[in-house]
Design brief:
The complex is a heterotrimer. Chain A is α+β, with helices and mostly antiparallel strands. Chain A has helices at about 10-20, 95-110, 115-125, 175-180, 205-215, 225, 235-240, 285-305, 315, 325-335; strands spanning about 1-5, 25-30, 35-40, 65-70, 75-80, 90-95, 125-130, 155-160, 165-170, 190, 245-255, 255-265. Chain C folds into two domains: about 5-130, no CATH class; about 140-265, no CATH class. Classes of the chains: A alpha+beta, B alpha/beta, C alpha/beta. Chains in contact: A-B, A-C, B-C.
Chain lengths: ~325, ~150, ~280
């Protein structure tokens, strides 16, 4: 016997959570684009998406976030800080790769400096993940040693029932249990079986690729030029990635008043490393693509013992020129053989 | 009681004609609405559409752009280039939903002090009637940056 | 002989005879419906080349990538008519020399692809002339018509909703053959004309400026629209700009390498009904 949340109870759940002061966010498709957005009615959820086009990271690390306001007067300078909003929320219908992506970035945002903008939101959010029963050609979680029903980063794991009428509930953390206590009486004990999880074939040999990347002489390999020749240098892979976390600090305003913002930045942009002098240490697109791969699979693991990739495949799925991590690591893992 | 709405209008003018026209209006003691902030430029050819966007970004309720009549340009054809640019930029503004009543273009020569004063009066009244450019101001508020105009 | 075989032979010929140092074409992508840019440098590479209706992207932007053409050697590229028009504009704007580019032309004719005769941009003039003639007769797009019919307020709201999705990844800019500026206006900060932040105002400003810079230069290849990861219908803005320059200035971008850019030229009797 397992506890089941039936889909027809979802509206009641939303109502309960709302009365408890918790807002609900979920996978939604609107104006021809999908992402995680606020939901008030169960009908707004789109659980049929293999994966929302935009990743979950924007809910924790917004693409543009005000940090500070400044005002310069004759005798004084006034500043005031923006704090991350405090509001309890549940993200219902997270994909396991997105939840894992957040867990991957936790050590990064808490390493030498505790980023309260990130952790405030992390603390106040319950991640209710739904295991994947379907995958597309770009999914690659298994290649990253994760699974379509991975628990990493999630507070609750839901497994869709075979007849698609609801989900088996697995409570993983205290925070998850707390949120589900509110709807405990809406859950039912049942024998219904869970649908089989999606089959995601392993697309590359991660160990082989990691070993190749660790070799210092491969930094200058001709491989980088070949693999990135068609890269046009846009930021769609980095901005859609659930783990890419680079940002830029931007002052908007004038000499007398304005605000300071934290904006997403991308290592694929030439401007990312441009010096004031005009010199650019990463002057070619191949050097930028190498940086992206090296950061994810060499520098990040070196520091945090984690690969900075959860295998969602968005980089390849959405790339205007059909590049992506999958292809690069596939080619890399072939090089050693 | 809140204060009555006073439109804030930015005028981009060329120094040889319209600015001189404004000067003439002043020396002729013609009175006109004080709602316009004039930005003087060497030629209408120097007026980039970016200026218009900047004025709106800083909270203008209306923008006007003015220079020499065709054929009168100090640089012989700066205003001809500007005219093409305005035509296209206007179509773009219209298509993206910026009301064209808020962005006006005119030719005012150095001799047309009266036309300048009248033009400023009409446009000010016109924009006063339309009220503040709320849709754009909402966008500015969302950025948290001050509209300093 | 199918067009693929015909062009594979042609590519092999071009490369083995040393007429060109590289051929830019299409190869297989991750999934059966995807094609990716392919850079062929040896005759054997031609075997990987594909050509079918899925080959849509305008590849001409790669020609202006740094250093490619600086050795004066010729480069061949597979292009649809829009792509040829891009070459003409790039040549007119002094970004490349048209005679350095060998064009392997193709177009969709019904279900099939057909080869287009010619090897340099100037050989395609008659074809592009006929495109200009048929441009005003383009099939109307229902959504485009709806946007045109909206009130300014509705149109404003429509675009705000679309632009609010923008993540400023600049895929539209990077995929556009016409966006070759070394430093884009949005990346400049002295002065900083438009907001770089991706709030709705910043997104609006970015999209306006992008569209304006392409007015009279866009060949409607659709690269920007297809590459947008959040599906903003950029084609509509470009289309509106294209209509304007055609109707008002009789300008159809990319007719020839000697065509004057529409916003860098003028006629004394250009219409000016809106100027008071």
């Amino acid at each position: 016997m397992t506890r089941i949340l039936f889909a027809d109870k979802l509206d009641n759940c939303l109502e309960r959570w709302r009365s408890a002061g918790i807002s609900v966010i979920g996978p939604v498709k609107k104006s021809n684009s999908s992402g995680y957005s606020a939901v008030t009615k169960a009908a707004e959820f789109d659980f049929n998406l293999v994966l929302p086009e935009r990743s979950i990271k924007e809910l924790f690390f917004p693409q543009s976030e005000p940090l500070m306001r400044y005002e310069i007067k004759k005798q004084e300078i006034n500043t005031s800080e923006f704090k991350a909003p405090t509001s309890e929320r549940i993200i219902f219908g997270v994909r396991p790769c997105d939840a894992a992506g957040l867990a991957i970035d936790d050590p990064l945002f808490g390493w030498d400096y505790q980023d309260e903008y990130w952790f405030q939101r992390r603390r106040e959010t319950v991640l209710v993940t739904i295991a994947c029963t379907k995958a597309d050609d770009f999914c690659m979680c298994t290649s990253l040693k994760l699974t379509p029903d991975s628990e990493k980063g999630s507070d609750i794991l839901l497994r869709p029932l075979e007849n698609n009428s609801g989900w088996q509930v697995e409570e993983l953390t205290d925070r998850g249990r707390e949120a589900f206590k509110i709807i405990a009486d809406l859950l039912q004990e049942s024998q219904e079986k869970a649908a089989p999880t999606a089959v995601v074939e392993e697309k590359f040999d991660l160990e082989a690729a990691l070993a190749w990347l660790k070799e210092p002489e491969n930094f200058e390999s001709h491989f980088w030029k070949e693999i990135s020749m068609r890269c046009i240098g846009c930021g769609s892979c980095t901005f859609l990635c659930p783990t890419c976390h680079c940002f830029d600090i931007q002052d908007e305003g004038d000499t007398y008043s304005g605000i300071r913002r934290k904006n997403w930045d991308s290592c694929s942009f030439a401007l990312f490393t441009m010096h004031t002098s005009g010199h650019n240490p990463r002057s070619t697109q191949s050097a930028r693509w190498r940086q992206r791969i090296m950061h994810k699979f060499n520098y990040f693991p070196g520091k945090f013992n984690l690969n900075s990739c959860s295998g969602c495949g968005r980089c390849s799925r959405q790339c205007p020129v059909d590049m992506g991590i999958t292809e690069t690591l596939q080619e890399l893992s072939k090089l050693l053989r | 009681m809140s204060e009555p709405f006073e439109p804030k209008i930015v005028a981009f003018v060329c120094t040889y004609c319209t600015y001189a026209g404004a000067d003439l209006a002043g020396t002729s003691r013609l009175k006109y609405a004080p709602n316009v902030r004039i930005v003087r430029l060497p030629c209408t050819g120097r007026i980039s559409p970016m200026f218009i966007l900047k004025a709106l970004q800083k909270g203008a309720d209306g923008v006007l752009v003015s220079g020499c009549h065709p054929g009168d340009c100090h640089f012989t054809h700066g205003n001809y280039h500007a005219r093409r640019r305005w035509t296209v930029f206007r179509a773009l503004l219209e298509f993206t939903g910026i009301p064209l009543e808020r962005v006006k273009f005119s030719w005012i020569s150095a001799a047309e002090g009266v036309k300048f004063a009248e033009f400023i009066n009409t446009i000010t009244e016109d924009i006063r009637k339309q009220g503040p450019f709320d849709q754009y101001k909402q966008l500015i508020r969302d950025t948290e940056s001050p509209a300093t105009l | 002989m199918s067009i693929v075989e015909q062009y594979r032979t042609k590519v092999k010929e071009l490369l083995s005879s040393g007429q060109v140092k590289m051929v830019i074409g299409y190869g297989a992508g991750t999934t059966p419906d995807r094609r990716r840019p392919l850079f062929m440098r040896s005759p054997e590479d031609a075997d990987k080349m594909l050509l079918d209706n899925a080959c849509i992207a305008n590849l001409s932007g790669y020609l202006v990538s740094e250093g490619l053409l600086s050795d004066e050697k010729r480069v061949a590229i597979m292009l649809r008519p829009e792509g040829v028009r891009s070459i003409n504009i790039l040549a007119a704007e002094s970004q490349l020399k048209a005679e350095q580019i060998v064009i392997v032309g193709f177009d969709t004719a019904g279900e099939e692809l057909r080869a287009i005769e010619g090897s340099e941009a100037k050989d395609f003039c008659a074809l592009i002339d006929s495109l200009k003639e048929s441009a005003p007769l383009q099939a109307p797009d229902p959504l485009f018509e709806r946007i045109v019919q909206m009130s300014p307020q509705e149109r404003f709201n429509y675009w705000q909703e679309e632009f609010s999705k923008c993540i400023k990844c600049y895929a539209c800019r990077q995929s556009c053959p016409m966006c070759y500026c070394r430093r884009c206006i949005v990346d400049s900060n002295q002065p900083q004309w438009i907001n770089t932040s991706s709030h709705t105002l910043g997104n609006f400003e970015w999209n306006i400026v992008r569209a304006f810079h392409l007015a009279g230069r866009c060949v409607a290849c659709g690269n920007c629209d297809r590459s947008c990861p959040v599906n903003i219908p950029l084609r509509f803005i470009n289309r509106r700009m294209g209509m304007e320059v055609l109707e008002v200035f009789d300008h159809f971008p990319g007719m020839s390498e000697s065509q004057e850019p529409v916003l860098a030229s003028f006629k004394k009797d250009d219409p000016e009904t809106f100027i008071l």
